[in-house]
Amino acid sequence: MAKQRMDGGRGRRPGVVSSAKRGGPGKGFWLALGLAAILGLGALGYLTTRPKVTATTIDPNLPPMKAEGYVLGSASAPLEVIEFADFECPGCGNFATLTEPDVRTKLVNTGKIRVRFIDYPLPMHKNTWDASLAAACANDQGKFWEMHDVIFNNQDRWNGEATGRPRPVLATLAKGIGLDMSKYDACMEADTHRAKIQSHLQEAERRQVQQTPTFIIGGKLIPGALPYDSFKKLIDEELAKAPATTDTAMKPTDARPSMELPADSSRRSPARADSSAKKAGAR
Amino acid sequence: MNKRMLVALVALAGVFIALYLTLYKLGYIGTLACAVGSCETVQTSKWATFLGFPVGAWGVAYYLAVLALALIGLTARYADSRQLSDVLLGVTGFGLLFSLWLTYLELFVIHAICQWCVVSAILAAILFVLSWLDRRDLTALIDDQAAEVAEQLREGTFGAQIRNTSEVAIRAVRREEQ
């Protein structure tokens, strides 16, 4: 465009710089810009309204679960939900702090389901093994779920971004729920439950769990930190389908019939309660 | 189609990508989950928030600013403005550096890659190159205008006494610009 006026400048009025102004945008440009805007908005609209739950059907020929995990709920509940989770995963933290309280009061304590928790420590989370070990040690004293809750509620105090030495923080949490600290320390010191957690991890890999949290509800594998409504819907579908045909073959050795929940959030540290409230607001 | 039009189009694409990343971060798209080497790792790390806002939201603001600058640069008043090119080059240069820093964090600190973040970094690089080319075009345009003024000065009766006509012309043109 700049070159257009190089064809000789004779005959012009002196004092007037007549170099062609660069041409303004033509119709083509506005058309392209408008099309791009419509395309972009359309794509975003589709992505935000698309259903979030993407369940895959589990191969029914897979061998039955070997991992025990940790069970909460009645052994006679008609449906067992299995959760694969990583203690350091923020998605799992979200589920534990935002969805799980409702799951417990409305589904577990009413005897509709029981929940089986299976560790799936992911390789990129540096401190997650220590958290899994700490929860396993708490389980020795019958307080797995209490430890599970304080670990998730205080994720940002012990995770890989917060510290390189998570064990002292986890010990503080263990003390907070009233564990016998000499037993806990000995259990952590000896790495007592490493093999058990390793078996949980292998179970997750065998089940082709790709991400955490992932849930097994009936014959479906569902990834992602489900909001309560989606979770409830999947449970209801499954309960309506076959009220009594769940595998009760696995004996829930660590089963606990129910768990009184922190009715208020008094159990949570104030800092964590704040941040989960913020998360809730953002959704 | 001049460079500023291209800048506007690329910036618009950037707006949507950054908007996608922001909505994802806020939980409006997909469900939050953790997997190896995925966007989730990046998006849930502490570097996904900058000065209290999701990094994606800063991206939206950045791309909107570039889009606005490019559109202003297409109006008749600023079509020939090299200063606008200077500003555009500065802003996109900053955007490129910020993107490089974020990509460095992904590769060497978080050890996970988020593909749309990479796309955004590529767009930032394209915007910088386009802005640099735009500034070069504008410099050429000003030189052309200066050459024309110099010619007029030389041909005009009063120009006979002026030495360094082209230098005078360049200054004259630049002053008019300002």
What report would you give on this structure?
- The complex is a heterodimer of chains A (283) and B (178).
- With 283 residues, chain A is of the alpha+beta class.
- Chain A has a single domain, classed as 3-Layer(aba) Sandwich (Glutaredoxin).
- In chain A, 46% of the residues lie in helices and 10% in strands.
- In chain A, helix 3 runs antiparallel to helix 4 (144-153) and helix 3 (128-140) crosses helix 7.
- Chain A is globular and about 80 Å long.
- The two termini of chain A are 50 Å apart.
- Chain B has 178 residues and is mainly α.
- Chain B has one domain: VKOR domain (de novo design (two linked rop proteins), Up-down Bundle).
- Chain B contains six helices and three strands.
- A two-stranded antiparallel ribbon of chain B has the order 2-3.
- In chain B, helix 1 (3-25) packs antiparallel against helix 3 and helix 5 packs across helix 6.
- The longest helix of chain B is centred in the C-terminal third of the chain and has 41 residues, at 115-155.
- Chain B is elongated and about 80 Å long.
- The mean pLDDT of chain B is 84.
- Classes of the chains: A alpha+beta (283), B mainly alpha (178).
- Chains A and B meet through helix 1, helix 2 and strand 5 of A and helix 1, strand 1 and helix 5 of B.
- Strand 5 (211-212) of chain A pairs antiparallel with strand 1 (34-35) of chain B.
